[in-house]
């Protein structure tokens, strides 16, 4: 009997295991299955760790988690594995279109995923065909038609095939980050540098100190997690004072001299998602429009003449211009027709610094800019064109990801598509309105400082870091937190397993700035081996071969189902 392993049992690995078992049952086939997961919370993985701080929120509303569907019951090794409820049933989700969307903590999602796994393991552990190894896989090689796997404790396994579903991996620090880390390690003891924002539990000592000025590199979702972790402390907490707008105040229990100083390359804040389903539906293309979008971009992607991303920009611009016109009085006043709007959108997508009266000005104060985006999300003020395009993009993303993954487009075009999608995330991956209201509350409490947010000059001194903004103002601190999470560039990943795969020529990047080159069924394309190498990889490390790898719902999507179906047919 063949020996098969799954490396990494986070959400994607969990669903791959489920789909594998269900397909084996349907085909009446058997495999010896070993899973490797070093953490103690299988199903959740590090990102959805069930022990992490309650202050780490998900940036996808619970309404959208309808994609976490129920698992049906099935048989394995003459044993019945019971069904497991969908997330909405498990969480007793109940919400009207007018209710503000709810955004659960990451640990709540992790609890669902872990319980879903445990319901499997209860039965699987009684089978001789299943084995769990709570060790880290550090090396893989391929010899004599067998995969040689090694763990961090020098245990070795011989396998016929493996599936790798590992998620976020450590990457080599940039030169600046290396310099800052070395600086903090060699200077005075009170100079502290954190090269990663997670787990935020590491900030427990910082958050309850009487006096602190803390620089935070980055102005995105991870920065918000860090911000919340540092300010929900013995000195204060957040309180929503208006349930309709989620306006928030920071209640200070006793004085604390705390300053948080975020900064980024462009200083632009994220735009929050709409308040509820009723407002979100303003931006939602109907099924007919999405179907036409799918056909249009798939057709363009198959043409030999497609050598840039204009086909995608044109397709999105067409949808967004129609929707902006449909907003009528909800949009900023204008007398432009569809063609003129499409041109403005196209120009803005190609250049985020493009200026027009319908595009929200970003040269106003950060506080005012956040305030305006909140009001747009609440439907209280006319919506700018950029906010509209960002929300439309979010609704088009699942179609975009499915249609352009494993396409025949040139690698440079794929890289440009991913860059464009990443630029959209300031809107499409926007946080809850309540998160942005918390930022304003901290600014009102003189804790969150926006004065240095836009690409300050940074120098190290014997006291720590000195930031200088464009007005010549300065601020110094001895604590720096890096909240910027690196993209999955394969050649920069320094995890032992990945470096082992590269060293042994078992994988290759689809592009020097992207991830692993794979076939549509997840099988790796190796440099010196044939395409029948029995190594499959799904998920974040395939960025480039696959577009849209970071979303939770992608872990429970068609790619995993297609892999399991194709794999079992060959067993």
Automatic annotation (TrEMBL):
UniProt cross-references to Gene3D superfamilies, sorted A to Z: FAD/NAD(P)-binding domain
Q: Where is the FAD-dependent urate hydroxylase HpyO/Asp monooxygenase CreE-like FAD/NAD(P)-binding domain?
A: 5-169
Q: What is this protein called?
A: FAD-NAD(P)-binding
For this protein's source organism, the top of the classification is:
Bacteria, Pseudomonadati, Bacteroidota, Flavobacteriia, Flavobacteriales
């Amino acid at each position: 009997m063949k020996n098969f392993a799954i490396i990494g049992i986070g959400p994607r690995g969990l669903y791959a295991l489920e789909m594998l078992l269900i397909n084996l049952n349907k085909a009446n086939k058997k495999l010896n299955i070993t899973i490797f997961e070093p953490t103690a919370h299988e199903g959740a993985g590090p990102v959805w760790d069930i022990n992490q701080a309650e202050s780490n929120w998900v940036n996808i509303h619970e309404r959208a988690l309808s994609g976490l569907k129920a698992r049906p019951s099935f048989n394995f090794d003459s044993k019945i594995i019971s069904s497991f409820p969908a997330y909405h049933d498990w969480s007793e989700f109940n919400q009207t279109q007018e209710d503000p969307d709810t955004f659960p903590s990451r640990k709540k999602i992790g609890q669902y995923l872990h319980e879903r796994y445990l319901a499997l393991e209860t039965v699987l552990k009684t089978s001789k065909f299943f084995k769990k190894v709570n060790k880290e896989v550090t090396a893989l090689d391929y010899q004599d038609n067998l995969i040689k796997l090694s763990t961090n404790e020098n245990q070795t396994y011989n396998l016929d095939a493996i599936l790798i579903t590992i998620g976020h991996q450590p990457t080599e620090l940039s030169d600046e980050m290396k310099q800052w880390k070395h600086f903090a390690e060699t200077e005075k003891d009170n100079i502290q540098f954190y090269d990663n924002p997670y787990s935020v539990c590491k900030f427990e000592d910082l958050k309850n100190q009487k006096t602190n000025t803390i620089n935070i590199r980055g102005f995105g979702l991870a920065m918000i997690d860090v911000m919340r972790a540092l300010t929900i402390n013995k000195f204060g907490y957040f309180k929503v004072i208006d349930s309709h707008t989620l306006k928030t105040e920071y209640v200070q229990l006793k004085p604390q001299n705390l300053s948080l100083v975020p900064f980024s390359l462009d200083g632009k804040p994220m735009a929050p998602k709409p308040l509820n389903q009723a407002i979100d539906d303003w931006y939602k293309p109907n099924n007919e429009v999405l179907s036409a979008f799918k056909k249009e971009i798939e057709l363009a992607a198959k043409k030999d003449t497609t050598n840039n991303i204009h086909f995608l920009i044109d397709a999105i611009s067409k949808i967004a211009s129609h929707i902006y016109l449909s907003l009528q009085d909800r949009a900023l006043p204008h007398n432009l027709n569809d063609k003129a709007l499409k041109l403005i959108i196209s120009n803005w997508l190609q250049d985020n610094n493009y200026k027009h009266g319908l595009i929200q000005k970003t040269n106003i104060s950060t506080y005012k800019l956040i305030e305006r985006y909140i009001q747009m999300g609440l439907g209280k003020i006319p919506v700018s064109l950029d906010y509209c395009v960002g929300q439309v993009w979010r609704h088009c993303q699942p179609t975009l990801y499915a249609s352009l993954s494993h396409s025949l487009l040139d690698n440079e075009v794929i890289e440009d598509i991913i860059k464009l999608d990443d630029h959209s995330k300031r809107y499409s991956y926007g946080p809850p309105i309540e998160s942005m209201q918390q930022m304003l509350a901290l600014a009102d409490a003189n804790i969150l400082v926006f004065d240095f947010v836009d690409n300050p000059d940074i120098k190290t001194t014997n006291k720590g870091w000195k930031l200088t903004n464009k007005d010549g103002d300065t601020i110094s601190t001895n604590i720096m937190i890096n909240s910027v999470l690196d993209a999955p560039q394969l050649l920069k990943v320094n995890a032992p397993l990945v470096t082992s795969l590269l060293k042994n020529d078992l994988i290759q990047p689809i592009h020097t700035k992207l991830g692993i080159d794979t076939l549509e069924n997840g099988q790796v394309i190796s440099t010196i081996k044939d395409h029948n190498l029995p190594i499959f990889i799904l998920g974040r490390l395939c960025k480039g071969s696959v577009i849209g790898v970071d979303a939770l719902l992608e872990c429970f999507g068609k790619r995993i189902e297609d892999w399991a179906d194709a794999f079992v047919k060959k067993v």
